[in-house]
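job 3f2a | input accepted
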Amino acid sequence: MGRWSAPLVVPVHLRHRRKEQWRAPVRVVRPAQGPAPVDVAKGCWSGFGHQEAPQAHGEEEAPQAVEEDSRPATPPRQVAPGRDMGRVVLVTGVSQDLGGRLARRISTDPEVSRVVGVDAVPPRQDLAAVRFVRADIRNPVIAKVIAGEDVDTVVHTSVVASAALVGGRTSMKDHNVIGTMQLLAACQRAPGLERLVVKSSAEVYGSSSRDPAMFTEDMTAKRPPQGGYGKDVLEVEGYVRGFSRRRPDVVVTQLRNASTVASYTRSPLGDYLRLNPTPKVIGYDARFQLLHYDDLVAVLHHAALAGVHGTFNVAGDGMLMMSQAIHRLGHRVLPLPRLTLGALGSLVRQSGLGLPDFTPEQLQFLTYGRGLDATRMREVLGFEPRYTTEQALLEFASSVTSPTRVTHPVVLAESLVSGVLAGILAGGGRGG
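job 3f2a | predicted structure (432 res):
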């Protein structure tokens, strides 16, 4: 203020240019009209063009602080003439039990006009009104499906927790991480996409002796998962955050669910709790929460239609200790040193019998447990689980104590092998 400044002198040859030519150049990236060429050698990311490429597998972001989102739910949609107001929802992983149940449930919602189910293999279960499209999300053809079906909501449920479901750990990582990367690439090129719901997991927090009593969504793992399912979901969340930065117009919801159980389906923790006697690490009594499988399906359905941006812990109310859960199931405890339980897990993995797999990450959980603060689930997402942790365990117990339980071949193998292992370990202890 008050200082003399020289006037701006414009060269004569530029004085007659139009005003808009003085503006700074704007870089515009238009959505592709179809799936872009894929360079497999470069990780199948050539479809992103000039946009930011995700990090390499070993460079994924750790869970970061989740800021409260100030934007409201998705605004009223601008629908093309002749099209109804119902949503078009695409659900991945419909050949698995979770994806199939979710797709059927959403298809009955009056706010939804059409549900498209996608998977690499045909589903064995009846999908009712769901339109099934056989497509592998690791293939760029998924972009054609999203564009061709005019999808506005994608629910990604096909991040699998067990290597046995996809033929080994290498295939599991390829399915979980590369599949999610390609799906996000397709979503990024879909101008009509409004919502993305991703089923993550509380495994992103890991388990250790230094954990807080309850993890909130803005906390990070004290000991991040170093492999397996936990590392996969950690990478997936990193890529989802990158997608959210590139497409701020899309409402992105990530759900970190607690361990699930139900009488009618299998899960990693459920398979472990079905063992009788139940192995338990000597000197530790892990605390944990449960989410009933029905509530997992319900919260994914709720998130798809609620349109609330953010990351949410999802768990039933209350907490149990491992010793309490084993006692309420009427099982005997098989106390084992941690190293012995780890060796047992290695034997189980090599057996090929489909028995509970004690991976290093699962062993950490069985030792230390984990607690989730689900306040944001109730207050921001607006969801309340039907089952508490204790009620979920009681419903699950009906399958464990059923007289017909041993008629299932896999469950019979569980009973026989766990009994034999208990006898061997007991005999080894007496012998020396």
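job 3f2a | The radius of gyration is 25 Å.
job 3f2a | closed
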